[in-house]
Design goal:
- The complex is a heterodimer.
- Chain A is an alpha/beta fold.
- The longest helix of chain A is centred in the N-terminal third of the chain and has 17 residues.
- A nine-stranded mixed beta sheet of chain A has the order 9-8-7-10-6-1-4-5-11, sandwiched between helices.
- Chain A has a single domain, classed as Rossmann fold.
- Chain A is built from eight helices and 13 strands.
- The termini of chain A are far apart.
- Chain A is 30% helix and 26% strand.
- By secondary structure, chain B is α/β, with parallel strands linked by helices.
- Chain B folds into two domains: 176 residues, Rossmann fold, CATH 3.40.50.620; 120 residues, Rossmann fold (3-Layer(aba) Sandwich), CATH 3.40.50.
- Helices cover 26% and strands 29% of the residues of chain B.
- In chain B, helix 3 packs across helix 4 and helix 5 runs parallel beside helix 9.
- The chains are: A alpha/beta, B alpha/beta.
- The interface between A and B is large, with 80 and 98 residues.
- Strand 9 of chain A pairs antiparallel with strand 13 of chain B, so a sheet runs across the interface.
Chain lengths: 262, 322
C-alpha cells in the first residue's frame, strides 16, 4: 500500500508558555520550541505499521518553510521512506483550503492508496484532511482510532465518537483519514535515527513544480484569515492560593471541607 | 440580511443541546438574520425532532431518507448539497460529527470555512468577524471570513447561551424530494459501545483527576494515595489514556466519560475544552498546575501554581493527619 502522511511543524504546547509580542498582535515567537504536531506522529506510526504488514511505502509531506524539513527528517527517522517539502512564498497565509489545494497537487503527482493526516494541529481546526478528500472526491473519515486492511480496495476504520464509543465504517480506497491520538504507541526517535537520515535527499517543490496558480493559494486565495492574537478579558478566573506550600494546603483543606471534598 | 441554516444533530429522537445555542450565535452574526433549522434522518425520530424544532425556529427543513438512518457524514453532505443554496451560511457543531462533515462540505459548497468558533463579533462588509482559540486553548485569535459566497462554520458546543424561547410557532418544510443520489464510498457498520471499567468515575463525588503533569506512569501512585486519603477516585485526561497508563473508562472529556462530582481536583491538567466538556454539574474545581497560564485556571474555583508531584504527597500527608 502506498501511503502519504501529511505532517506539520508546530509550536510545542508542552514546551512553551505562550506570550503575545510587544505589539500585542502576534505570538512572541523568538524563543518558541517547535516540534512535529503530536497527532502526526500517530499517523506516521500507523502508516509504518500498515506497510510492515502488507508492504508498500510511506511518504511524509509538509507545507512549510525551510525549517519544516526537520520534521520530515524526524518522521523519516521513525521509518517513513520518503519526504517531500512543499515550500513557496506564494503559500504563505494560506487558509485550510489553500493548504488542502497545495497537498492535492502533490497527491496528483503520485499514486497513493491511503492519505493520512493528524486529526488536528496547532490551530485546532481539524480541517485539512476533510477538505483534501472532498477536493480529490475520495471518501473520508475523521478521528480514526483503528484501521484494519480488508483487501487491496477496502479497509475498515473505527472513529472515536462521543462517550468513548467507536463508530465502525467500511471505506473504499483510495481514501483520506484523520488520525486520533491513542491509535498506537509512536516509536521513539533517537539522535542516531535522525543522523541516519540526515543526508537523505528531501525534494522541495514550489507552486511552479506543482502546477499551482499562486493567486489561488496563500493570502490572496484565503477566504478565512487570522486577524490577530489577543488576551481576552475572562473575568477573575480562579481564586489563586498563595504563600508557602503549608499555608496553601491549610487554606485548601478548609475549602475542601466546606465543599464536601473531605 | 443573512440567511443562516443551523444543522440539528439528534440522538434517539432528541436534538442535541447545540440546537438551543444556535439562535444566540446567529444573533451575534447578524441581529436581523433569519435562521432555518435543518434536520436529516428518517422515520418517527426525525419527525419528533423536526416538530420540537418548530418551537425554536420559524422554519424547519426536514430531509427524510432511509439511507440517513445513521448520520454518515458523506451522505449528509450530499443531501445538504442538494437541498441548501450554495451561498448559504451553515452552522454545525464542532464535535465528532461536525468535524467529519463540515470541512468537505465547505469545499463542495465553495464556501469559506471557519472551525470551532467560540464567539461572533458581527459583520463588517463581506467579512464575518469571529473568535476562536489555538494551541489547545492557550491563546485566542480574531479571525475573519469572506462570506460573500457562503460559509460553513462549526461552533463550539456550550459557547453560546441556550435560548429559552420555545414558542416560535414555526413550520416544517419537507425537502426530502430535493435529494438525488445517496450513495457513498464509506459505509457505516456499527457503534462499538465503550467497555465498562473497573471503577465507575461517573458515580464519584470527589475525583482526583490527573493530566500530563503526572509525567511518568509510576507517579500515578502518588495520585492514588491522595485519592485514597480523600475517599476519592482517580480519573484522568486524554494523554494518560493515550499513553495506556490508565483505562479508557477513567478518561474525563467529550471523548470519554461525563462526570458530575461535587469536587474535581484537576492535577496537572491544562484544561482543553474537550476535557472540560466532560465535567458537568458545576463542581468545585481545584486546579494545581505549574504553568500559571494554564487555561484550567480560567474555569477553576481555586488555583494553585505548584508541581503536582511535590504538592500531592504533601496534601496527602495533611489530609491523613486530619
Amino acid at each position: 500500500m502506498e501511503i502519504l502522511v501529511c505532517v506539520k511543524r508546530v509550536p510545542d504546547t508542552a514546551e512553551n508558555e505562550f506570550e503575545l509580542n510587544s505589539a500585542g498582535n502576534d505570538l512572541d515567537r523568538d524563543d518558541l520550541v517547535y516540534s512535529v504536531n503530536e497527532w502526526d506522529n500517530y499517523a506516521v506510526e500507523e502508516a509504518i505499521q500498515i506497510v510492515d504488514n502488507v508492504g508498500g511505502s510511506v511518504t511524509v509531506v509538509t507545507v512549510g518553510d525551510d525549517e519544516s524539513e526537520e520534521v520530515l527528517r524526524r518522521e523519516m527517522a521513525m521509518g517513513a521512506n520518503n519526504g517531500v517539502l512543499l515550500s513557496d512564498d506564494a503559500f504563505e497565509g494560506s487558509d485550510g483550503k489553500g493548504i488542502a489545494a497545495i497537498l492535492k497537487a502533490e497527491v496528483a503527482k503520485g499514486k497513493y492508496d491511503l492519505i493520512l493526516t493528524g486529526a488536528q494541529a496547532d490551530e485546532g481546526a481539524g480541517q485539512v484532511g476533510g477538505m483534501l478528500s472532498a477536493m480529490l472526491d475520495y471518501p473520508y473519515a475523521s478521528l480514526v482510532n483503528k484501521i484494519e486492511v480488508v483487501n487491496d480496495t477496502t479497509i475498515q476504520v473505527g472513529r472515536e465518537i462521543e462517550g468513548g464509543n467507536q463508530e465502525m465504517n467500511e471505506i473504499q480506497l483510495p481514501c483520506v483519514l484523520s488520525i486520533q491520538t491513542g491509535i498506537n504507541e509512536p516509536r521513539y526517535v533517537g539522535i542516531r535515527g535522525i543522523r541516519k537520515v540526515a543526508s537523505v535527499d528531501v525534494p522541495v517543490k514550489g507552486a511552479g513544480d506543482l502546477g499551482i496558480d499562486p493567486a489561488t493559494v496563500g493570502k490572496n486565495g484565503a477566504k478565512t484569515r487570522r486577524v490577530d492574537y489577543f488576551v481576552p478579558d475572562l473575568g477573575d478566573g480562579a481564586e489563586m492560593l498563595e504563600g508557602s506550600t503549608e499555608e496553601i494546603i491549610e487554606k485548601l483543606i478548609e475549602k475542601l471541607k466546606a465543599k464536601g471534598g473531605l | 440580511m443573512t440567511q443562516i441554516f443551523a444543522y440539528i444533530p439528534f440522538k434517539n429522537g432528541a436534538a442535541e443541546d447545540v440546537a438551543l445555542e444556535y439562535p444566540d450565535a446567529a444573533k451575534k452574526i447578524d441581529p436581523s438574520a433569519e435562521v432555518t433549522a435543518v434536520v436529516a434522518g428518517t422515520g418517527a425520530d426525525l419527525d419528533k425532532v423536526a416538530d420540537a424544532m418548530t418551537g425554536i425556529y420559524k422554519e424547519v427543513i426536514k430531509i427524510d431518507h432511509a439511507e440517513l438512518a445513521y448520520p454518515n457524514a458523506e451522505l449528509v453532505r450530499k443531501a445538504l448539497l442538494d437541498v441548501l443554496p450554495h451561498d448559504a451560511l451553515i452552522l454545525l457543531p464542532h464535535d465528532t460529527f461536525g468535524m467529519d462533515l463540515a470541512p468537505g462540505l465547505a469545499v463542495k459548497m465553495d464556501s469559506a470555512y471557519a472551525a470551532d468558533i467560540v464567539d461572533f463579533e458581527g459583520l463588517d462588509g463581506k467579512d464575518l468577524k469571529m473568535i476562536r482559540q489555538e494551541l489547545g486553548g492557550a491563546v485566542y485569535t480574531h479571525v475573519a471570513s469572506d462570506i460573500s459566497s457562503g460559509a460553513v462554520i462549526t461552533v463550539r458546543p456550550g459557547s453560546f447561551a441556550p435560548t429559552e424561547d420555545t414558542a416560535a410557532g414555526g413550520s416544517v418544510v419537507d425537502k426530502s424530494g430535493d435529494v438525488k443520489d445517496l450513495s457513498a464510498k464509506r459505509k457505516f457498520l456499527e457503534v462499538v459501545v465503550a467497555e465498562v471499567g473497573d471503577v465507575d468515575i461517573t458515580k464519584a463525588d470527589v475525583l482526583v483527576s490527573i493530566g500530563r503533569g503526572i509525567e511518568e506512569e509510576e507517579n500515578i501512585e502518588i495520585a492514588q494515595e491522595l485519592a485514597d486519603a480523600m475517599g476519592a477516585v482517580v480519573s484522568c485526561s486524554r494523554p494518560i489514556v493515550d499513553a495506556k497508563w490508565l483505562e479508557k473508562s477513567r478518561q474525563v472529556g467529550t471523548s470519554g466519560q461525563t462526570v458530575k462530582p461535587k469536587v474535581y481536583m484537576a492535577m496537572g491538567i491544562s484544561g482543553s475544552f474537550q476535557h472540560l466538556g466532560g465535567v458537568k454539574g458545576n463542581p468545585f474545581i481545584v486546579a494545581v498546575n505549574k504553568n500559571p497560564k494554564a487555561p484550567i485556571f480560567q474555569v477553576a474555583d481555586v488555583g494553585i501554581v505548584e508541581d503536582i508531584l511535590e504538592f500531592m504527597p504533601e496534601l496527602t500527608e495533611a489530609v491523613k493527619g486530619l
